[in-house]
């Protein structure tokens, strides 16, 4: 496997929490309004090699809801770090609008997945920000989409990018605004549970093996196992 020497990422993701969120919001909202990534070409054109720096790469900056407060406690910093988390955490439109335009949302998502930097921003894998990943057709009930065709279109581009993310392993981080938490370097492997979901549901891997894989194995092993399971489940070639 070739080790990456260059991973180009739009410079707008490097900075403080407030700066990076504002920049991404402007970009993704223009993409949604125009229905195409070409609307953001100029804003995304300034790219830098993320391997030339050593700052943490934040892929999740939003705690789950707490029963005591009923709202998340986001982490903030004025120090420059890579905040790729906004790709998932700051969607292009309000939730109801995304639900009503799920095909448009999914098409823009797939277009974004042509780029490695976009895939890095999906490492936390919380699908609650991606309503196209759910079936709302039954009144009063919401079902996650597990059909093979959807999972193939949704996961294949991400899985194919995984080997290229390995040089970033030690810098992948999550962040919490809760007291005593803050920034935590988690590594790549612990962020890949969602990529194993279809294989677990298909009986290709057991729950104990999923837990062991995500908590006891290094990123190379996890990425290799996911690629092997994907070849079995989806029938596509091994990522290069």
Question: What's a quick, concise take on this entry?
Answer:
It contains ten helices and nine strands.
Describe this structure in words.
- Helix content is 42%, strand content 12%.
- It is α/β, with parallel strands linked by helices and 240 residues long.
- The protein has a 5-stranded mixed sheet with strand order 2-5-4-8-9. The chain has a two-stranded antiparallel ribbon with strand order 1-3.
State the helix count.
10
Q: How far is the N terminus from the C terminus?
A: 7 Å
Overall mean confidence score, pLDDT: 89
Total strands: the figure is 9
- Secondary-structure element pattern, one letter each: EEHHEEEHHHHEEHEEHHH
Q: How would you sum up the global shape?
A: globular
Main sheet specs: 5 strands, mixed
**Structural class from helices and strands?**
alpha/beta
Low-pLDDT stretches: none
What is the alpha-carbon Rg in Å? 18 Å
Strands of the widest sheet, in order across it, are 2-5-4-8-9
Helix content: 40-55%
Strand content: 5-15%
For the structure shown, list the relevant keywords:
240 residues, alpha/beta, five-stranded mixed β-sheet, two-stranded antiparallel sheet, 10 helices, globular
What layout of secondary structure does this protein have?
Elements: E1 8-10, E2 14-15, H1 17-34, H2 41-45, E3 47-49, E4 57-60, E5 81-83, H3 86-89, H4 95-100, H5 102-112, H6 116-120, E6 134-135, E7 143-144, H7 148-165, E8 172-176, E9 182-185, H8 193-201, H9 207-216, H10 219-234
Parallel strand pairs: 4-5, 4-8
Antiparallel strand pairs: 1-3, 2-5, 6-7, 8-9
């Amino acid at each position: 496997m070739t080790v990456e020497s260059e991973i180009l990422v739009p410079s707008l993701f490097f900075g403080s929490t407030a700066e990076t969120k504002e920049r991404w919001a402007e970009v993704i909202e223009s993409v949604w309004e125009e229905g195409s990534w070409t609307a953001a070409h100029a804003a995304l054109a300034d790219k830098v090699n993320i391997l030339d720096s050593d700052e943490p790469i934040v892929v999740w900056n939003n705690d789950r809801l707490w029963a005591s407060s009923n709202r998340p406690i986001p982490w903030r910093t004025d120090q420059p770090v890579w905040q790729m988390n906004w790709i998932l955490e700051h969607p292009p439109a309000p939730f109801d609008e995304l639900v009503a335009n799920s095909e448009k949302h999914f098409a823009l998502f797939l277009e974004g997945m042509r780029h490695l930097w976009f895939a890095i921003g999906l490492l936390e894998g919380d699908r609650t920000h991606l309503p196209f990943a759910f079936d709302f057709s039954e009144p009063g009930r919401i079902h996650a989409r597990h059909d093979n065709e959807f999972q193939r279109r949704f996961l294949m581009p991400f899985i194919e990018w995984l080997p290229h993310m390995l040089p970033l392993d030690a810098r992948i981080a999550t962040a919490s605004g809760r007291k005593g938490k803050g920034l935590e370097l988690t590594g790549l492997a612990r962020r890949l549970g969602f990529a194993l979901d279809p294989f677990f549901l298909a009986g290709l891997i057991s729950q104990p093996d999923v837990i062991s894989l995500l908590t006891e194995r290094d990123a190379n092993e996890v990425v290799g196992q996911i690629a092997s399971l994907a070849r079995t489940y989806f029938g596509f070639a091994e990522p290069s």
